[in-house]
């Protein structure tokens, strides 16, 4: 993400237009790295985000809202004490460095006007936010550090000094002689030489300089190369920084944001592009989409972990019950031993052996068999012991079979969720899956909303909607709630229902409108059923299909579970992608 000095220079100008002469209305700190300033100007309130997150430092105006902690952190309280009601009078940038200085005009306890500053250093893992007074003394910082942990003393009362790493040349001021000296006795690439020696420029900007310079190392002498790079650098900086010739551009790949920049980068020609009239709007969209994607990935991984953990537990219980059933194979033998002991009880003599030998009346040839006994018990007690073992194993077997049936239902439910989770592309899909897990007790239920809080309305189901080559509407459930909705409420009795045979996946509906469905449409629907299942990318996938009137949901069954009859099966190879299918957005 190239939030470099070039971007910051142009953004600073937009922030000045939006915020200078505005007053600080509210201040929040939603997390340990970020502050939100609500600035009131000309009848409107603008929200300025400043984040010193080590992995994603940023500053921009947004309308998006975040949940704030009930108790404000200490740094937030200090900002409120010093800046509430203050007026923003200017916004500066330190050369072309990624350092922003926001100037505030406020009044002290005596009513005298004072100047205070927020200084934001965008320095990767060293990013920080300072509140500084007019004497350049630190009032506080969002990250405090002493000399022991930092080359600077970042504590209340210490003098604010610029970071010691600011030794690079300002590309706006560098001369050709200085520029040429960077390349002397260096074996690094031209791109790395620029990044190592010039401030405020990113790899993306440097790549654009090189492309603009049209440098061909094989055919151009080094001096000429250096000259071209210098001229290209100065020209791009002049157009962007001095003349303000910008085209804020957001780059995406398959719907996911990749990057943004102040101009359209030639090096990003392979990505989809969206242009904006303002740089701040572009940045706001980038971070909003990136945050949504991050939340989506984190929640998806969280749900996957929950499903995997429960699948593992259930699989272990399944194996334990299979073992109990296997052990119960000896139950009839133990009953037989008990019966034979009692049948011969008065004919047997006391013995010092750990077995007795009796006639097996259950076999046609009446052979003699040996029955193990415990010598500290009499024969009647040994018979009772075998009866107890028999009863225990039979009851265990009965319980195990019942539990296996329940476990198989649970496994089928979780495997279906796992298949749906794999195909989830929107946060709403994940929330529906989370809701199913919550209802079934796999996820701790969220507390009920307070009396003065309104419960969120459930969104109308929004299944995938495709149109076949023959013009038939095909619907695919995104989750089990939608599967039930499509099959039990949405579809008509003569619509066609499809599902992979004994493989977890989505319910697929072909809207027939009482028309005959061509084989091509049936095949396309079967391909979608295979793609939106655990059999994705597999070959020879069996897909069952029947009319909706032959599909039933058993009472008290889990979401997405149905039984069906009078079906036929079509065998398909699951597609690796569905770009060729016509989808209705």
UniProtKB/TrEMBL annotation:
GO cellular component assignments: RQC complex
Keywords for this protein: Coiled coil, Protein biosynthesis, RNA-binding, rRNA-binding, tRNA-binding
UniProt biased composition (Basic and acidic residues): 442-460
Coiled-coil region: 297-331
Domain NFACT RNA-binding: 464-556
Biological processes, Gene Ontology terms: rescue of stalled ribosome
Positions of region (Disordered): 442-465
InterPro entries, A to Z: NFACT_RNA-bd (IPR008532), RQC_Subunit_NEMF (IPR051608), RqcH_bacterial (IPR043682)
UniProt-recorded name of the protein: Rqc2 homolog RqcH
Source lineage: Bacteria, Bacillati, Bacillota, Bacillota incertae sedis, Caldicellulosiruptorales
Gene name of this polypeptide: rqcH
